[in-house]
Amino acid sequence: MTTVSAIDREKGTAFLPRFDAQGLLIAIAVDSITREILMVAYMDEEALAKTRETGLAHFHSRSRGKLWLKGETSGHFLRVQETRVDCDQDALVMLVKPEGPACHTGATSCFYRKLEGEELAPIAG
Asked: Which range is the signal sequence, renumbered to this chain (predicted)?
């Protein structure tokens, strides 16, 4: 196993994703037009490779323990327009074109509530 230095990862031009102990990294889907955060999920190496190969967001389902194509049952795919990588390459922001609601509840975004004191309140809009 080749060790990657922090300098190579943080200052270099090579894509060197840093997966956690469970083999995952954070993936944040953001609407490429509105810049609204749509969802947060995890990717393993397979999900990352499939996303890059197809242009459709794939994730690792922690609850099912397997590859998950966002939209495979709902038809609400996320078409990746651009992928941004954070400084230490353990998180991605994907600018996406959503083909329907991103949240399994039917909401546009999974972030449809805000914390007000000790309660959750719907976000207008």
From this structure: none
Distance (Å, whole) CA 11 – CA 65: 33
Instruction: Look up the domain containing 64 and give its range.
Output: 6-122
Domain CATH for 94: 3.10.20.810
Is residue 110 part of an annotated ligand binding site? yes
103 is in an annotated binding site: yes
* Gap between the Cα atoms of 29 and 40, Å rounded: 6
Which pTM value belongs to this model? 0.91
**In terms of DSSP bridges, do strands 58-61 and 66-69 run parallel, antiparallel, or are they unpaired?**
antiparallel
User: Any known ligand binding at 31?
Assistant: no
pLDDT tens digits for range 57-80: 999 999 999 999 999 999 999 999
Q: How far apart are CA 35 and CA 78, in angstroms?
A: 14
Instruction: Tell me whether residue 8 is annotated as binding.
Output: no
Query: Edge-to-edge strand order for the sheet containing 25-31?
Result: 37-43, 25-31, 91-98, 78-85
Residue that wins the pLDDT comparison between 9 and 96: 96
